[in-house]
Amino acid sequence: MTTLTIPIGDTRSLLFPLRDGDVVSFIASTTLLQPDSSPNGDNTSLNLVSGDDDYLLHISFRRADQSVRLNSRRPDGPWGAEESFKFDGSFTDGRPSVVSVSVRGSKYLIAIDGRLRYTYAQRINAPAKGLRYGRNGDMTTAIFGNSVNAQVVHTLPPPNPSQSFSINVGDTYTLNSALTNDQFVYFISTTTSLTPDPSPGGDTTSLNLLSGDGDWLLCISIRRVNNTVVFNARNATGGWGVDEIISSKGFFQEGQPASVIVQNRSSVFDIYIDGILRYTFKKRINQPVRAVRYHRNGNMNTQVFAYNINVAIDGQ
């Protein structure tokens, strides 16, 4: 899950375009039902936009007549025919609100506080790559305040990976081909255990990218004892380098699914945990990624993730 804060008037780009089955929830800490006195009308909107700035879904909230208007348009084109429905008690003044959009095939399902209110047929065939929170320029208030949080839940693994497989803890899997620049490696677990293993050798679960010669190009080590994630690398026959360490507090939830996604850049690895960029690791060994390894200390009986996890390769 990815969480983005969107100030009024701003757009936030998504790491991955929205796909069938994905859900975006716009979460407002308060709701202001008093209409704005702007001469150009009271209009606050939540929007899904494409990479070309198409308004794929424009959800406009009109407090003056208690209505929600839905529309779409190209960047330089006119708005189409409006579709609308009434508030009908969906909002309470001064209370939080959640507006969710689910992608279902060629339709967007719009729910307010968990109640499905409208199904909108997509008019522009393009994936949503950004989220926008807007209002008329001369307004001084907006129905959802000065910012909203957007939670994005992606379907995992990606729908058409170039390669996918499952791997047990302790195993190494050789890829069909070396990772290319900008490709993603998805590590997906059905569950998470946050209780440290009492092993005398230390509690360490790691996800690893290896070269064809067995170099550890990236080691992502999760340490439950002190709530940290440690990043490192080493040659096949050499010692570990200097640890790079971040706190893992809030990254994982007990008993819940988890994803760790690594994007292979030209000189760095970007590491995302549950869809949020957590760290950028500068490459130390100039070799292509040709294998992945799922590992725990040899005398441990438990690990952070499931014993068997899914792995997928996606991207160009």
Automatic annotation (TrEMBL):
InterPro entries: ConA-like_dom_sf, Galectin-like, Galectin_CRD
Single GO term (MF): carbohydrate binding
Keyword entries, A-Z: Lectin
SUPFAM superfamilies assigned to the protein according to its UniProt record, in alphabetical order: Concanavalin A-like lectins/glucanases (SSF49899)
Domain named Galectin: residues: 10-151, 171-310
Pfam families named among the record's database cross-references: Gal-bind_lectin (PF00337)
PANTHER family noted in UniProt: GALECTIN
Name of this protein: Galectin
Organism lineage string: Eukaryota, Fungi, Dikarya, Basidiomycota, Agaricomycotina
